[in-house]
């Protein structure tokens, strides 16, 4: 009789152990991360999803999101990629799906491995395994919609970030895309090495902010405004879920009359520009909203705050056209590289040891029962 009970006893213990391990993975963030997309815009949007090389494709690569609705997507630990929202989407006469901004060119609602056509506001993530997640909102590929990224349930700094201002209202004529529903980066508009941080301007020392990136930065100080933007634009959190809210400060993003800020005509120069002085928050734990834990006290100027009244000849604006900030200087002088390349190398050794110790202790306790 005793031997007949062994299979059922074994199965019970196995299921119990498996349940405990799954719970541990959920608590520590190893199991995965939930991204929730919320549409507060007046019109339907179509979020797009692109996994970086080496990261698995998520359950969806693009979907329809009507106003006042939300949808959640799961991502495994270690995943990296980007999200954006497409607008003005419709079926063409040839039955191909097309969007007026941030189209991915797939011809369907699903982007199927294709990225956003600039201009597009990008939310970029590299999820940790046992260490920190890294995330940012990038205007390096231009702007089409305001977005707010908020971590929930995580530990660490976990600050909110995003671009809440309607930059389409202040977009200079030379950067306007289409009917004004999006604003190009200077790199996309002019294609020069100075603005694209390429060639002789391919280093942080040679590629510096210009009036265009400063205009974006003044309105959205926590977003990347050019390829070598500083550490005020990169954020970390551990074992969190994330909510991406499009048009967080709606009503209407297009209802008001556009206010246009047009810099005077530029002249060509190879002289490095002066280092523009700006009032961006510095990467300090004493700065409100940076490392406070809540991550919600975000302060943004109006669409015209901080725009230079005089225009200095630009030397080096900075959009890579890749939509990715591949390198950023941290306050301690180290380099944070490969955010959008899936290279999440910064972790917390102490946290890793704590997690592993907890898992080992629980498993041993179950085995000895």
UniProtKB/TrEMBL annotation:
Keywords for the protein's UniProt record, in alphabetical order: Signal
Gene3D superfamilies tied to this protein: Thaumatin (2.60.110.10)
Listed SUPFAM superfamilies: Osmotin, thaumatin-like protein
Keyword check for Mitochondrion: no
Pfam name, any one: Thaumatin
InterPro entries (alphabetical): Osmotin/thaumatin-like_sf, Thaumatin
Entry annotated with the keyword Transport: no
Signal sequence interval, chain numbering: 1-32
Bias kind Low complexity: ranges: 248-270, 279-288, 310-327
Region span, Disordered: 248-327
Annotated PANTHER family: OS03G0233200 PROTEIN
Name this protein carries in UniProt: Thaumatin-like protein 1
Species assigned in the record: Saponaria officinalis
